Amino acid sequence: MIAPPAGYVGTALLGAVLGLDVVSFPQAMLSRPLVAATIAGALAGSATLGLLVGATLELFALETLPIGASRYPEWGSAAVVGGTLFAMAEHVDPLASPGVMSTAVLGAIATAWVGSRSMVLLRTLNGRLARRSMDALAAGSARTVVGLQMSGLLGDLVRGFLLTLVALLVMVPAQEATLARWHSPMRESRAVVVALAAMVAGGAVWKLVHAVPRARWLFLGGLLCGLALMALT
Amino acid sequence: MTGAARAVSTAPPPAKGVALPLTTRLSIFLRLLAIQASWNYEILLGNGIGFCTEPALRLLPGGKGGEAYRAALARHSQYFNAHPYFAGVAVGALIRAELDGESPTRIERFRTALCGPLGSVGDRLVWAAWLPFCSLLALLAFGAGGGPLVVVGGFLLLYNAGHLALRAWALRVGLERGLQVAQALGGPVLRQGPQWLDQGAAFIGGAALPLALTRVIGPGRTLLGAVVVAVVAGALVITRLHGRVEGWRLAALLLAAFVLYSIAR
């Protein structure tokens, strides 16, 4: 279990490392929500709970692939926040917290949105540094080349750390206050968040494959198999 | 692609000049993993290209800090764009061209021509095919009841087998072919791979969504029928709104509204 707020530092370090993976190093998809939330959940006491919220966030993330020059949510640090919020609250008392999934997912999405803005800010700062170093770059200075790369890495690490730390400091109390006033029943609460995640994922998969030969039929065939299995279980 | 092909059409066969020591290759490969660290809106990936080529440029006449080294590093630290996994093709090819003593004009022309293809091929193969394929397969494993180790471990192993193999291939093919690397980008795997992966992702995605939904919904299972109908309707709306509003933003707004309703009711 994480003891707030000092315990958040470890989680923020995890957010920093996984935030770094999104673009800077090494892009091994440790930052995918499925992975990041599961690791955060394990740190907060339950990898299984982390996996549960990670899978939900992964459904959202399927729509935001980093194609071309698109600006996309930063899911690495965000999934750490989501996994921590869910695992911490659910681990303590699963029955008394019907709104945990909704608040954890909303908190993660909000963090992902802020994270996206923070990445734009970091890239702007990197650009200013690069512009200031144009003369040195044009002179073939290895020190400048390596320095820009290292400052970019460090900047991204600090960005992820601060983002995760601030998000936890804001969202853990906000989640507690929300859950204390939560009136929707458990089944409704869970159904709404899962339905929203699945509709985003369904739309995303369709958009991704609809122009590919035979893929529409393959998707519908898979869907029928999935629905049949769902009915059987 | 045509630009790159034009740039290499008059190229002589790749010279087998200076061989790269294994430690230099390893150093370049490790640097490639951080190629986007200083990504910015001014020169995009440019500094990263310079950063990755630097260990090999030390082999130029005059060594580190020599005139040839500094001129080459300056050339490669300017504006460049590519998919990060495919940037190794450019890094390898530019290193080979420098070590083979190609003229700076040809190298710069080739460098400019390579930008576009390396971005679009990478986006189609990795971000729009390999990543969603692996992600949906992991969701299928999750929906089938897989635990954290199976789902997360399986995803990371599978994805990174492809990821690291692609990076290694990119660097190798660039180093081997130099300015004639454009032909390698027309290989069947790169041309047909995205389509095959998307076909697989289509089937897996179709099967994974209902199963993942069933597992996450837990106590909401009694509402499963209504949820499935809502998901199909919502997905259709999101598909129709494509380009005007992103589904995740719309879903986040609806979720925020539900949270407020759950507090106020």
Task: Describe the 3D structure.
The complex is a heterodimer of chains A (233) and B (265). Chain A has 233 residues and is mainly alpha-helical. Chain A is built from 9 helices and no strands. In chain A, helix 3 packs across helix 8, helix 4 packs antiparallel against helix 5 and helix 4 runs parallel beside helix 7 (142-180). By secondary structure, chain B is mostly helical. Chain B contains 10 helices and no strands. Chain B has helices at residues 2-9, 22-32, 46-57, 67-76, 87-99, 104-143, 148-177, 188-217, 224-240, 247-264. Chain B is elongated, with a radius of gyration of 24 Å. At the A-B interface, helix 2, helix 3, helix 5, helix 7 and helix 8 of A face helix 3, helix 4, helix 6, helix 7 and helix 8 of B.
Assign a percent range to the helix content of chain B. Answer: over 70%
Termini separation of chain A (Å)? 33 Å
DSSP summary, beta strand count of chain A: 0
Tell me the structural class of chain A.
Answer: mainly alpha
Please report the total strand number of chain B as a whole number.
Answer: 0
Strand content of chain A: under 5%
Percent of residues in helices of chain A: over 70%
Radius of gyration of chain A over alpha carbons? 20 Å
What sequence of helices (H) and strands (E) makes up the elements of chain B?
HHHHHHHHHH
Query: Helix and strand succession of chain A?
Result: HHHHHHHHH
Main beta sheet of chain A:
none
Question: Are there runs of chain A of 5+ residues with pLDDT below 50, and where?
Answer: none
The biggest chain-chain interface is: A-B, 113 and 105 residues
Strand content of chain B: under 5%
Mean pLDDT of chain A: 94
Which structural class matches the secondary elements of chain B?
mainly alpha
Radius of gyration computed on alpha carbons of chain B = 24 Å
Low-pLDDT sequence parts of chain B = 1-15
